[in-house]
Amino acid sequence: MTLTYTDLGWSDFFQSQQDADGDLTPYRISAVHRDKLTGLSPNGQIQLLPDRLTGEFAVGDWVLANAADQVCERLERQTELSRRAAGTDARVQLIAANVDVLFITTSCNADFNLARLERYLALAHQSGCYPVVVLTKADVGEDAADFRVKAESLAPALSVLTLNAKDPDDLKQLLDWVKPGQTAALVGSSGVGKTTLTNGLTGSADAVRDIREDDAKGRHTTTARYLRRMVHGGWLIDTPGMRALRIKDADEGVEEVFSDITETAQSCRFSDCAHNGEPGCAVVAAVKDGSLEQERVVRWQKLQRDEERNSETLLQSRRRDKGFGKMVKSMKRDHKGRKGY
Ligand SMILES: Nc1nc2c(ncn2[C@@H]2O[C@H](COP(=O)(O)OP(=O)(O)OP(=O)(O)O)[C@@H](O)[C@H]2O)c(=O)[nH]1
Ligand SMILES: [Zn+2]
Q1: Would the pLDDT of 161 be above 60?
Q2: Entry's Gene3D superfamilies (predicted)?
Q3: What is the position in ligand 1's atom list of the atom closest to the CA of 163?
Q4: 88 and 184 co-located in one domain
Q5: 168 shares a domain with 34
Q6: Contact 282, 267 (CB under 8 A)
């Protein structure tokens, strides 16, 4: 079957970035390898040679390549999903590009965690993707409707689907959210059913899991991401091996997810109110009168702290560590001094 550029997700946004002569060919990146890229065009799939480190490309990117299959340009992204890399590394790690819909996947069991959902929602808002919460294992034991109500409480008009990932009929619910030519990405913890969903939505049983790398702790993780065609003509990016999501530079996303709280906080007497017992704190007052939920405020404060810390540059975190080291030293000195009394 021949695909057109429109089928691949090409739009006016990318067209306007085409080179004037039009002698370069656009390709959609379907896989990023150590030293090469896989690109899709109406002529099929080819290997492309990157013009910079492949870590600067994401699955879903559009690039322009010359007749020798060398990438000459990476087009500006409509949306970009990224997180802070694992370990002590402060770098940004790209997850996917030009994603329209983010399927935030969790299951109707112990994996369900409101704080984690909020983190993924902040990622969606920050990147410009439309979030849809997918609750799998609705067919198993516990009452799926309860989980749904809890998830829906996170934002007004939040789209929440409950389903059995193994049931082809249930999967139609997801297809409704992605138009042909649009791209969705699946995120969520290990074991929630991402592979099952990917196989069901793309009609392939061979989840390609061939690139294994050691992470910081020496564990093997599957890091390959692929752009796959969904049965109805949309595109799907699975994100295997994403053990934890550390959001970075997502302060606006966090603000959006907690807009009810941030709006209330504008009425605090002090503009830098930490909502920790300051006089005239509107957030504490709202918790008291029941218009804000205490646990949600606590989750907001924690997510804000995490986000700030993840967004520090390496230099800032070194300074913080140094400052902390100095503080410990001076405390030790003080302690010694006091002992002398
Ligand atoms: N009953 C039921 N089982 C499910 C459902 N979704 C997934 N499973 C099962 O849960 C197990 C884990 O599913 P996977 O699709 O491998 O989960 P994953 O998110 O891809 O996990 P990783 O590969 O570790 O990232 C498999 O045994 C699935 O068959 C569901 O909605 N209902
Ligand atoms: Zn306050």
Answers
A1: yes
A2: P-loop containing nucleotide triphosphate hydrolases, Probable gtpase engc, domain 3
A3: 31
A4: yes
A5: no
A6: yes
Nearest CA to ligand 1 atom 24: 190
DSSP letters spanning 155-193: STT-EEEE--TT-HHHHHHHHTTS-TT-EEEEEE-TTSS
Task: Give the count of domains, the chain.
Answer: 3
The Cα–Cα gap between 279 and 292 comes to 18
Q: Which ligand is nearest to the CA of 272?
A: 2
Find the length of the chain.
Answer: 341
Eight-class DSSP state of 56: G
Whether 244 shows a pLDDT value over 80: the answer reads no
List pLDDT tens digits, range 191-237: 889 999 999 999 875 544 433 333 334 444 445 678 999 999 999 99
Residue that terminates a domain, selected from 39, 74, 109: 74
Atom 29 of ligand 1: nearest residue by CA position:
196
Which structure tokens are listed for 154?
């996170």
Across 86-90, 186-190, 194-198, 336-340, least confident range? 336-340
- Residues with CB under 6 Å of ligand 1 are 136-137, 139-140, 164-166, 190-196, 240
Rg (alpha carbons) of the chain, rounded to whole number: 23
Domain limits at 256?
251-311
Q: Is there a single domain that holds both residue 97 and residue 230?
A: yes
Interface pTM, i.e. ipTM: 0.91
The protein residue whose alpha carbon is closest to atom 14 in ligand 1 is: 193
Are residues 224 and 126 part of one domain? yes
The pLDDT value recorded for residue 322 is 65
Higher-scoring residue by pLDDT: 341, 287: 287
Q: Which ligand is nearest to the CA of 286?
A: 2
Q: Rounded to the nearest whole angstrom, what is the distance from the C-alpha of residue 192 to the centroid of ligand 1?
A: 5
Give residue for tokens 């996917």: 96
Q: Choose the final residue of a domain: 58, 74, 90.
A: 74
Query: Residue for token digits 């970035």?
Result: 17
Return the pLDDT at 210: 38
CA–centroid distance, residue 308 to ligand 2 (Å): 18
> Which of 139, 140, 174, 192 to probe ligand 1 with, by most ligand atoms within 8 A of CB?
192
Ligand 1 centre distance from Cα of residue 106 (Å): 10
**Do residues 201 and 62 share a domain?**
no
Name the pTM for this structure. Answer: 0.83
